[in-house]
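Many introductory courses stop at the sequence. We go one step further.
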Amino acid sequence: MPQPGTGARRGLLAAVAFAVLLNPLNSSMISVALPHIEKDFGVPFSRLTWLIATYYLASAIAQPVMGRVSDLFGRRRLFYAGLVLVTVASALAPWAPSLVLLIAFRTIQAVGSSTLYPAGMAMVRDAFTTGQAQALGILAVFSSTSAALGPSLGGFLVHLGGWPAIFTVNFPLIAVSLFLALRSLPADAPRAGAPSRLDLPGAALFSMTVVTALYFLFSLDGRGPAWWAAAAAIVLGWAFTRLEMRVDEPFMDVRVFRRDAPRTFVYLAWTLSNVAFYSIFFGMPTYLETARHLSPGATGLVMLALAAPSSLISPVVGRWVDRAGHRPALVGSGATFLLGAAGLAAVGGSAPLWALGAILALLGASNGMNNLALQAALYRFVPLEETGAASGIFMTARYTGTILSSSLLGIVFGRAVSAGGLRELSWRLALGLPMSPCPRSGRAPSLTTAQPHLRGRSRETQLHALPRLRSRRRRVSVRRTPPPLWRRGRPRPAAPSLSLT
């Protein structure tokens, strides 16, 4: 497939950038609109939590499902379908006559915006064969900025036009993305060897597993853990694994989590990183407004110290990752986060605001480095034809970490929001989540993982593939193993053994 020109690539990147900010923007704006929705519909506040929970659930399920669908049936057509779904949901939601219909329209909006991310990331990866980390850095700026500024923008819109205004703001973004997409998105090319059908039973079991698992996580900060949901998630997960190992064209190749350890480490690291970041992102505003009695405006200004470095550092980290690989950025991210969390635990929540702002800037910079480096690490180990599904699972790991962070905050601030609780949270993060597990940038997973067609072949056949691995900058060494002592009296040719370092 021919590569698009520079202008087309820039247009593609801009179209995807304006599209991917829709999901984090709409997930964060809703928080400031909840009191107004409660007043208009006359429902208790406890029922409004479903507006948030269903959005996360739908996004966590739709990201990998729609990513797989885009891998099978075309990224561009799924990208357009996602824009249509967000448009329809945003047009209908302001006119919802009941909370149930509003939740339904929000769910459709979540599915549509979740389609845009994996399809868009796959097209960006196809188009940017060089400078890929820089392109990911630009997308990270749009995504992180929209999530950070969502509450501020939502408060301004609600003040002007009530809670329906948070849905109408989507239309200019959709229009810009659609205009750029029509001019620059490449046509979907047929993919040789790709499966021709979707594993619907596998997708259904995966969805039920995610729903029950996330419901259990949601229950950890409520009246009590829903152990039945945990048991159901285990049973459904076991059934899903058994099914996917038997079918010829699985919805998700579960063997890859055991066979490809670096990819599994990336998903685990991304989950833990989001637990750490969102514990600060949600916990600090709660502390500032409740314990230190800051106004929402002042709290928003302090929290800009967390959001701004995360956005500003992303392009710089993108160039760094392109030159040096993802591992140095991951090490720098872990060290910066450890320094910030330890600093927050040392000075405490009663420190001057400028000191808290400096510490939040360190934590925000750590998040910016970690975001880019983990995405680059993921795409290093994922084949091009699996980019959509892998990107979807990556975002599901993000939502899992976000929900776990709310459970952690429920434990720390369960009795009262205080400086002692914030200090405890900081120590927990500093001692428990200082650095993310990460694969070495110069290490290949295994010879047969990099060359699947060599599985089951003889050692001599596999050794012929070593020059191919060297061309991919994989450090491979061949050493000869001497015969055991009791056989040294009978010289024999030593069998070569393979080691990957």
